[in-house]
Amino acid sequence: MDCLFCSIIAGEIPSKKVYEDDVAFAFLDIEPFHAGHTLVVPKRHTADLTSDPTAFAELAPSVTKVAELLKEKLDAPALNVLVNSGEVAGQSVFHLHVHVVPRYADNPGIAGMARRDPDIDVDAVYSKIIG
Ligand code: 5GP
Ligand code: ZN
Known about the structure:
Layout: H1 4-9, E1 17-20, E2 24-28, E3 38-42, H2 55-74, E4 78-82, E5 98-103, H3 122-130
Helix pairs in contact: 2-3
């Protein structure tokens, strides 16, 4: 099957991995909304939130671990967690993924959550997380 996130999990396409366990693989989003924007994906392929009855529940502990990691390493006081499920909702990659988006006091609130920020230095952010 031709799936971008399956290829990332398999290491066939490079990614900035921040976390991995038996169930999940997590890596920095290529076009972040805020510094440290991470995608947590199940290793087992499933297209979206409703195409597998247990995938989201199985992924939840890993999402929480990634959230804790990002808050600690990036000194982020808050975060948003988001799933776009289905094309009309904005899903563009059809392998279930949870967006974990760290938030910072200088740009608070839900209104500015989902705007791409081209000024983020993704390499510098990555060093802070894995260092
Ligand atoms: P969706 O719109 O499906 O909820 O989210 C897909 C996300 O995947 C987008 O935020 C997009 O920036 C990210 N993305 C797309 N292609 C790649 C890629 O090749 N590498 C990484 N790291 N992220 C990607
Ligand atoms: Zn996949």
